[in-house]
Amino acid sequence: MTAKDKHRGKDTGKQRKGAGHGTQYVRLQKNYCFACGKNNPEGMLLRFTYDEDRNRFVCRFRLGKRYTGPPGHCHGGIIATILDEAMGKVNKLHQVVALTSEITVNYLKPVPLYKPLRVESREERVKGREHVNVAEILNEKGEVLARGKGLFIAIDPQKMFARFVER
């Protein structure tokens, strides 16, 4: 399986030795995730791509009125959601499902509405089931507006989500 296949969620049924810690990525038939779910018409519909050259996930987006916090700017909870989603994508590189255990957000500058933005995420380290990832939201000038760091714990999706998977 190539890195490109891994980030797209393609499953060949094989596990990479050591990288997945005995867990295997499971793709649910419908994705209702608020941040990235294509089956959630009320969600953010964020679309991530994997930049192989820079070894990170990237998503370009604009935020509309519904995400308002301070006048003309994004709500802090939405900023945290975007960072969390971006960091979570990184776990796909190891073919694991890893859930957020902790997240820290540094709000550096107000995140504007209606302007081109991007979020980038990458792995910082992996130790056993613990995956530490980082992400940044940047404006079109490349200025970092918000930065996040998250601890994700790899789980067995068969055990945790079996009753939610359509058969």
Any overview of this molecule?
- It is a single chain.
- The protein has one domain: Hotdog Thioesterase (Thiol Ester Dehydrase, Chain A, Roll).
- It is built from three helices and six strands.
- 15% of the residues lie in helices and 32% in strands.
- The longest helix has 15 residues, at 76-90.
- The protein is globular and about 45 Å long.
- Strand 5 and strand 6 form a beta hairpin.
- The model is unreliable at 1-18 (pLDDT under 50).
- It has a six-stranded antiparallel beta sheet with strand order 1-2-4-5-6-3.
- It has helices at 3-7, 76-90, 157-161; strands spanning 49-51, 56-61, 97-107, 117-127, 130-139, 144-155.
- The two termini are 25 Å apart.
- By secondary structure, the chain is of the alpha+beta class.
Structural classification: alpha+beta
Helix content: 10-25%
The portion of residues forming beta strands comes to 25-35%
Oligomer: single chain
Average of per-residue pLDDT values: 86
CATH class: Alpha Beta
Largest sheet: 6 strands, antiparallel
User: Radius of gyration in whole Å, from Cα?
Assistant: 16 Å
| CATH superfamily placement | Hotdog Thioesterase
Architecture per CATH nomenclature, i.e. the level-2 architecture: Roll
Instruction: Please report the total strand number as a whole number.
Output: 6
What is the number of domains?
A: 1
Query: Looking at the structure, what is the overall shape?
Result: globular
